[in-house]
Structure formats: structure tokens, C-alpha cells
Design a protein that fits this description.
Shape: globular
Distance between the termini: 37 Å
CATH class of the largest domain: Mainly Alpha
Number of strands: 8
Structural class: alpha+beta
Mean pLDDT: 88
Strand content: 5-15%
Helix content: 40-55%
Radius of gyration: 21 Å
Number of domains: 3
CATH topology of the largest domain: Butyryl-CoA Dehydrogenase, subunit A, domain 3
Order of helices and strands: HHHHHEEEEEEEEHHHHHHH
Low-confidence stretches: none
């Protein structure tokens, strides 16, 4: 497969590159899992939005630019090439946003999408519970209808960005007598509501990237429901498809990691070549990143022509999560003992690879564990019987 860009696409790339070169902060922002870093990243989201780059694929009426998916891939390539800050509102932009486009009312789209694109409102994800991790059908947190409100009671955990986020989107059991996939409703919940308690959970790097959330008679308007009552599973599966498939992890992210890995190998080649397997791993990392890129362009082209993402999103999720792990494991092998230094020791290069390595360990878990994804692949794509 060879990519051939049109004159208009090349002009778009040049426009993106010029804007980023003029606006990307000269110094890296603090980690967005710190309070100061969260504020800095929110301001960066505003800068992107003011420039018309908040979420390029959304219609202009919703704070976007009206671009197609090929232009989005081009934008992502330039974004990662420029070393621009990570998107603190990725849960909203890449997961809830596409879901709102598909299931939201016109009023909901106009209410939530522009504020999402600008970073004015940052979103957390509310799937997992203490007894419902990868198995979302086991959700027990209830949302019982009371007039024009739902009353929420229960707990969510491992909620990404919830420590300082403004809103949460999640799945709740609106029929307490129901079980499994039935009786679930998709709700949008303001995290400053009375009765909400947010407690941070520290990651491997010590920062509160997650939180557990407790709901004690929290009242949420019925207008904050996506789709019909009891249709939550269908809506959540659409969101999970966006998470596993196209939007959450653009190929540019892994192309950038592959480029950095090649540079690291070339800088330390004399030491790295003492283990013949390292050179092979670097080449395979580059090939994997390029293969994922070509596959994503093919998927984007199919979607532009009216196609859909189905169970094959599980294949994509397994591929990119395990590719990310392999690339960082290879970098750690090149760095050797230096890679084991804690963040306060070593140079910026080793610290960056260590942080990336720690985060990569979560890849096979979030967006649905890879074990579950392999079950989906076996049953829905290969037609194999359930174990």
C-alpha cells in the first residue's frame, strides 16, 4: 500500500505545521496528572480551540473544523512531530465526542461539544467498578428514575482524569432488578454535584491519574441521558469501539515512539549491538508502527465511504497496546541499568522512556483487557465457539 496525498491535503499539512511551529510551548508542560499540569494543559486546549484545532473532525458549529478522517490523521502526524502537549481531555474528545455525534440530541451536541473542544469542560470516564472491571455487564452502580431526575448510588473506580475533571460519562443500572447487559443507562454526570466524592488513586509513577468516585443520592437530570433508558449497553459499546479502534490512539503516536527508538539505538549502537536481538527489535518496532499507520489509513478511507468499525476494533486494540509495550521494552534494554533510575535520577531521556514504559503496561488493560479482546476476535471474527 502506498499513500498519495492530494494538493489540498498537502496544503492542509503545511497549514497545520506552520501553526504548531508558531504555537507549541517552547518548554514541556508539567504532567497533567498534577494540579498545575492539569491547568496548563487545559489552557493549551483553549489555545488549540482558538486556533481552530480543538477537534478538527467535528463540524464548525460544535467547535470543530469540519475535516475528514484523512485530514485528522495528517493533523495527528504533525501534532506528534511538533512535540505538542498530550491532550488532557482525550476521554471527551476521542470517546464521548464521537458517541454524542451518534446518539446525542441536537441540544446535547450544542451544549457539550464546543465546551469539550475548548477544554472548558474536561471529562472523566466512569466504567469500572470494584466488582466490574473488564466485565462491564456486571455493573451495579444504580441510577433510579425519580421524576425528571435519576438518583445515583454506588461507586466507580479507575476513573481516568477524574481527580480534576468537571464531568463524568458512565454506565449505570437504571433497572435494579435487571442483570448483565439489560437495564443499563448511559448518563452524563457533573462531578461537582452534591453527593459526589472523588478520591485519587496513585499510578505506578506516584501521580493521581485515576480516582474512585462515590455517589450518595446524586441527582442527575434526565436530559443528561444519552439515548433511551435501558439502551446504555448499545451506547457504551459504540464508545468502546471508538476507544479500541480509530480515535484514541492515532498511529502518529507510535510512529513518533518508533522514531525516538531508532534515534536511541543509533546513539548507543556500540552498546546495543552487544545483544544481536536489539537491532531486530528496533526494526520490528519501526515496521509495526508503519503497518499500524497503513492499516489506519485504510480504515479511515473505508469509513469515509460509509463503512463501519465492528469487532475488528479488538484486533487494532491488541496490536497497538502490545506494540507500545515492545517498543518501550526495547528502549529499556538499550538503556540498560540507567533505565531503572527513578524519575529524580538519570537524564531527561531515560526518565522519558521509563515513564513511557510504566504507562505502556496499562495498554493491555484499559479499553478492555487484551484477554477479553482475544475472546471477541475468536468468537465474532473467527466464528469459534465460546470456551
Amino acid at each position: 500500500m502506498r499513500l498519495h496525498f492530494t494538493e489540498a491535503q498537502r496544503a492542509f499539512r503545511a497549514e497545520v505545521r506552520a501553526w504548531l511551529e508558531a504555537n507549541v510551548p517552547a518548554e514541556p508542560l508539567e504532567d497533567f496528572d498534577t494540579e498545575a499540569g492539569f491547568t496548563q494543559h487545559r489552557l493549551w486546549e483553549r489555545t488549540l480551540s482558538d486556533g481552530g484545532w480543538g477537534m478538527v473532525t467535528w463540524p464548525k458549529a460544535y467547535g470543530g473544523r469540519g475535516c475528514d478522517l484523512i485530514e485528522w490523521l495528517i493533523f495527528e502526524e504533525e501534532y506528534w512531530r511538533a512535540g505538542a502537549p498530550a491532550r488532557v481531555n482525550q476521554n471527551g474528545l476521542f470517546l464521548l465526542g464521537p458517541t454524542l455525534m451518534e446518539y446525542g440530541t441536537e441540544e446535547q451536541k450544542r451544549r457539550f461539544l464546543p465546551a469539550m473542544a475548548s477544554g472548558e469542560e474536561v471529562w472523566a470516564q466512569g466504567w469500572s467498578e470494584p466488582g466490574a472491571g473488564s466485565d462491564m455487564a456486571a455493573i451495579r452502580c444504580t441510577a433510579v428514575r425519580d421524576g425528571d431526575h435519576y438518583v445515583i448510588n454506588g461507586q466507580k473506580t479507575w476513573s481516568t482524569r477524574a481527580r480534576w475533571a468537571d464531568w463524568l460519562f458512565g454506565l449505570f443500572r437504571s433497572d435494579p432488578a435487571s442483570s448483565r447487559h439489560r437495564g443499563l443507562t448511559f448518563l452524563l454526570v457533573p462531578l461537582r454535584s452534591p453527593g459526589v466524592t472523588v478520591r485519587p488513586i496513585r499510578q505506578l509513577n506516584g501521580l493521581p491519574g485515576f480516582a474512585e468516585i462515590f455517589f450518595d443520592d446524586v441527582r442527575v437530570p434526565v436530559d443528561n441521558r444519552l439515548a433511551d433508558e435501558g439502551a446504555g449497553w448499545q451506547v457504551a459499546m459504540a464508545t468502546a469501539g471508538f476507544e479500541r479502534g480509530l480515535m484514541l490512539r492515532s498511529p502518529a503516536r507510535f510512529q513518533q515512539t518508533a522514531r525516538r527508538l531508532v534515534q536511541l539505538y543509533n546513539e548507543r549502537r556500540a552498546e546495543a549491538d552487544m545483544d544481536p536481538a536489539i537491532r531486530d527489535a528496533v526494526v520490528r518496532a519501526w515496521m509495526g508502527a508503519e503497518a499500524y499507520t497503513l492499516s489506519t489509513y485504510a480504515t479511515a478511507s473505508r469509513l469515509i465511504k460509509g463503512g463501519h468499525i465492528g469487532a475488528e476494533a479488538s484486533l487494532t486494540k491488541v496490536f497497538w497496546s502490545e506494540l507500545d509495550q515492545r517498543m518501550h521494552e526495547t528502549a529499556m534494554a538499550i538503556l540498560g541499568a540507567e533505565a531503572e533510575l527513578l524519575p529524580d535520577g538519570g537524564g531527561d531521556e531515560s526518565r522519558s522512556w521509563l515513564e513511557g514504559f510504566l504507562f505502556a503496561q496499562a495498554g493491555p488493560i484499559y479499553a478492555g483487557t487484551n484477554e477479553i479482546q482475544r475472546n471477541i476476535i475468536a468468537e465474532r471474527l473467527l466464528g469459534m465457539p465460546r470456551a
